[in-house]
Amino acid sequence: MGFRLAIGGISHETNTFCNPTPLADFHRLEGEAIVAANRGVRSYLGGMIDAAERVGATVVPTYDAGATPSGGAPAADFAEMVARLTGAIRAVLPVDAVCLALHGAGAAEGCDDIETVILEAVRAAVGPKIPIAATLDLHGNLRPEMLPPATALFGVHLYPHEDSYERGIEAVEFLARYLQGGVRPTMHLEPFPLLFSSATSDEEPVRSVNAYCQELERRPGVIDVTFFHGFSHTDVPDMGASVLAITDGDPDLARALAKDVARHVWARRGEFDIVRPGAEAAVREALAFVEASGGPVVLNDYSDNPGGGGPGDGTHLLRALLAANRPRTAFAFIYDPQVAAQAHAAGTGATIEVRMGGRTYPLHGDPVVGKAYVKALTDGRFVATTPMGRGRRVDLGRMARLVMGEVDVLVSSVRTQVLDPEVFLLHGIDVTRYDIVALKSANHFRAGFRDLAKRIMTADTPGWTTGNVRNLPYRRIGRPIWPLDPETRYERE
Ligand SMILES: [Zn+2]
Question: What is the pLDDT of residue 492?
């Protein structure tokens, strides 16, 4: 069937403990540039574009904005993005349906829940009859107010979010069925008082929670059942976990399924309280593993994850690796445009004195000071190869491979997490020949590194993306919440 499908979005995962994110830090695409950036890419919008072609819909791209996680946007900047999105949608009316790529853990100055504001604004722009579907990140802190302006909301099930492309497809196929009169969705959101930092779907307990959700989705009349982890770094009243169930015209079933999954997770809450070692202990454990079983050990810097708001220039783990000073150790990457520029000015083969990282927050450690040999210099450009956004053109700005003692250290000019072994290859490093491959990411790196790692190990140092929620200075989240308040109850137990 032919129909006109407006696509677009505003996406931000807001770490309220970090510095604000001004409009200039958002990528902002309009019209056909959205299609050019996402066609053939494993992203939410890439899935929407491919699915639209398959169901015979005409894609009408509108406005898309997104930024690397950090603090919320200033109020005027957020208002401008909403005005651009709704203005772009109004300009292409009439459309038959709207599909948006949102996040769920977005906040802005003076606004604890940007997604509800966005959905209500788009609803006002298109009127009450046009279906609006949206994709969401499972780290969304969902609240019931989000539901009424939307027709259906589809969250990723996997962390790493390897199914964002599939959720884009699912949302558009849902809209096609809806327009044919084939489905009348009803949603139930079940928030429950569980707080935890990220937990991968590669392992328990999330793996079997997801298997259970999938089992429920196969029942007749069930459209979707998604476990939302919440984002533990958004200090807003509605932060926390939830389950969203969508059924075809059966609100009682939606409520029953959402509560069922929430109870199931709640019963296993102890498994979400994961304690990870600090930098020195993690390096010691990694080296012991290499000694006994060989490498590579992929060692991730959990608490300076730029993908969750971390500054990318934290030095705790790098310092521990430099102190260990073992050969076949590589680290990617410190965000430090000044050192990258210094290395480019000096040229390959030069030895420079660096004062690297530690520029943004004292919590993330002092700068690393010392001699560095400039081994390789690049433009930081490559095409993503992992299921996390495969096909996307990546540009990390001027980069350098420095050698400090025995350790290879990559330096970038863009703040982002490490997802892809390709960034090592770009600098001549075949990570499969290394013993210790350290990188800044909490979990998404698994999609690119799980197959080559002999073991994945994690360091959790002081930092604004720490997994130790007891160390975060919450002021506004709803209490009681488990595990901060050990006596917390969900329903009557
Ligand atoms: Zn996420």
Answer: 57
Measure Cα distances from 105 to 16, 118, 261, 403, 464 in Å: 10, 13, 21, 38, 16
User: If you measure from the C-alpha of residue 402 to the centroid of ligand 1, how many angstroms do you get, rounded to a whole number?
Assistant: 31
First CA to last CA across the chain, in angstroms?
50
Contact 1, 180 (CB under 8 A): yes
Question: Is the backbone peptide bond immediately before 148 cis, with ω within 30 degrees of 0?
Answer: no
Q: What is the pLDDT of residues 86-128, one digit of tens each?
A: 999 999 999 999 999 999 999 999 999 999 999 999 999 999 9
Distance (Å) from CA 138 to ligand 1 centroid? 6
Local confidence band at 42 (pLDDT 50, 70, 90 cut-offs): very high
Question: Distance between alpha carbon 110 and the CA centroid of its chain, in Å?
Answer: 23
What is the rounded radius of gyration, in angstroms, for the C-alpha atoms of the chain? 23
* Cis peptide bond prior to 296, omega within 30° of 0: yes
Gap between the Cα atoms of 269 and 266, Å rounded: 5
Helix (H, G, I), strand (E, B) or coil at 441: coil
- pLDDT tens sequence across 329-343: 999 999 999 999 999
For residue 261, how far is its CA from the centre of ligand 1 (angstroms)?
20
How would you classify the pairing of strands 399-404 and 407-412? antiparallel
Locate 219 and state its tokens: 């029942």
Q: Cα of 159 to ligand 1 centre, how many Å?
A: 7
Task: Answer whether 392's CB lies under 8 Å from 419's CB.
Answer: no
Question: Measured between alpha carbons, how far is 257 from 225 in angstroms, rounded to an integer?
Answer: 8
**Global pTM value:** 0.95
Please report the pLDDT score of residue 198 as a whole number. Answer: 79
Cβ neighbors of 189 (< 8 A, separation 6 or more) are 142, 143, 144, 146, 147, 242, 243, 244, 258
| Residue whose entry in the numeric block shows the structure tokens 């996997």 | 158
Q: How far is the CA of 413 from the centre of ligand 1 (A)?
A: 23
pLDDT for res 1? 65
Q: Which two tokens stand for residue 429?
A: 């490093």
Q: In the chain, what's the furthest Cα-to-Cα distance?
A: 69
pLDDT bracket for residue 182 (50, 70, 90): confident
Distance 158 CA to ligand 1 centre (A): 9
